[in-house]
Amino acid sequence: MMDDNTEIVINQAVENGCNVATVTCKRTDDQICDRITHQGAIGNVVVDVFIKDNTNEAVGQFFCQADGLYAAGSSTQISQVFCKFDGCKPAAPACPCNLASLAPTSNPPELVYEAEWTGPPGECMSTKIGCRKTNDQLCQLIELRDVSGVQVVSAIDNSIRETTSIKCQPDGTFNYLGL
């Protein structure tokens, strides 16, 4: 459902002699929606065409048909496009955890530390961390340890990469399986 903090943007282009409408459904505030749905009118029936979860913006492409109507996904004969926003709420507060603080201070040059947030946009609940070899050589053992030296995870499978997931706590610390 559209409200004052949402907008639909339609950009028309011609590809291979056919009109293509790129339809963007988006929030204009800081809210994240459980689901944003592109809907299409087919006759007097409204169907869901594209669905995107945990976002503030969704983009879909609608392609022209010979009769002047549009097709998208498995739907054809679309005469009008709508955006539906469900479960929208303010984005999570700024993340108290700092991924850079997890980076090792002394790694051999052939090892690279990796970290990325996982989960819905605007949330920093969990992260995937790990390290990998840059020279394609296999490691017999890769260990990830916390600052006190306690082994968090290890791999002994002759690999070039090892990763694990940890969670951000409200106090700005990270937690691994309750440790």
TrEMBL record:
Residues 16-70 form the DUF281 domain. It holds the Pfam family DUF281. This is DUF281 domain-containing protein.
